[in-house]
Design brief:
Elements lengths: L1 H14 L8 H4 L1 E9 L5 E3 L6 E8 L2 E9 L5 E15 L2 E7 L4 E9 L3 E6 L4 E6 L7
Antiparallel strand pairs: 1-2, 1-3, 1-9, 3-4, 4-5, 5-6, 6-7, 7-8, 8-9
């Protein structure tokens, strides 16, 4: 009986999910990968990133993502690559549909806050991003 109660309690707690609409306001900005958990369970931590992702929402449902390379002067060098995307809330998930001249793909935002962004891709690899903070050399 005790096991049944614990199982039901855990099921109830784990099934409660955040409203994906609330994630949208945090997606815009500069992000760097902190850690990737591969679908096979292996983790890779990123102590240093030479590139960051700039995600710009052009309206509440679309935008672009660019790879940027920060320099010591506080400026960014941008790659010419731009990934356009559309955001859709589907089945209680915030899905991001990317389009480039070379490919189309989908990622799902599992969580987003002022400081972190958690994304899973179609390979079931989970990316944990942290908000980019420029180096303070003073």
């Amino acid at each position: 009986m005790k096991r049944l109660l614990i199982t039901l309690l855990l099921g109830t707690v784990l099934s409660c999910s955040k409203d994906p609409q609330t994630f949208v306001e945090f997606v815009d900005g500069y992000w760097e990968i902190e850690e990737v958990t591969m679908s096979n369970g292996l983790k890779k931590e990123y102590n240093y990133n030479d590139t960051i992702d700039y995600i710009q929402l052009t309206d509440s449902l679309s935008g672009v993502r660019r790879k940027l390379k920060p320099n010591l002067m506080g400026k960014f060098e941008s790659s010419q690559s731009v990934e356009s995307f559309r955001i859709k809330i589907e089945n209680d998930s915030l899905n991001v549909y990317y389009t480039t001249p070379y490919a189309d793909w989908k990622e799902t935002i599992l969580d987003a806050s002022q400081t972190h962004l958690l994304v899973v891709n179609t390979n079931k690899d989970v990316y944990l991003y942290k908000r980019y903070e420029p180096l303070d050399l003073d």
